[in-house]
Specification:
Length: 272
Amino acid sequence: VYGMVDLGLLSTNKSAAGSTTSLHSGGIAPSIWGFRGTEDLGNGLKATFNLEGHLDASTGAEVGPSFRRQSNVGLSSADWGSLTLGNQYSPAVLAFAATDPRGLRENFSGLYPWAYNSGALTTGNNTNNDVGVFLQNAIAYNNTFGPVNVGVSYSLEKAKGVVTALGVKYAGPVAVSAAYQATNLPGTSSNQSTMYSLGAAYAMGDITAKVNYLRGTNKNAALVETSDVGVFGIGLDWKTSAQNTVMAAVYVGKDKNNAANKTTTLILADEY
């Protein structure tokens, strides 16, 4: 049994609602609860399961279905990798997280650009795709070959929509990640959303630099392109002690199809 509760005080100004102060669930990490386990089958083979839900800590209410985030079973082997069936993390978003300047923290990171460019929020959307992060009805394979980790998944039910995802991570002096995710229009063979990212990270003693580029294109239900977004992120983490890290990051985003849709986000944070 595991979980995490993240609840804080949020104050905003100059928004559409004016100035507000409220309790906010999920400032750094999501508030989650779950069950997971393994069973040793012998000869290095294990059976696994994971059930994970999402909650609003300010009210105790579930966010979506009981196990919206994960509900899967699998087999894993040190030699052959893992095979997982069910609702699970996209291997593409896991690769993207490895070099996102803010490590996909719940707020002020690459998480929202990823989610909003994933096609999951588009009219006539693919229901096997939950905000680009979780893929339902999916079969996924993951394995590590020396310094390279590869994950690939495919959502099977065409009526809900096929999602293809690929993530690759290289762990070396310079860590590198690449991700690709395509979501099709349900009942067709045409992609409604396509995303890819490339990123790198380099540690220099107590300082780690990260840089990442995300590109996402989306189409409407008539398969007419509505957005072509590029987001560039760069950041530095400075570990000032074993318990404390100072973080600085900049994200610049622009939609090539809508010149007015552009944003620059500056983040300075201290995490103890």
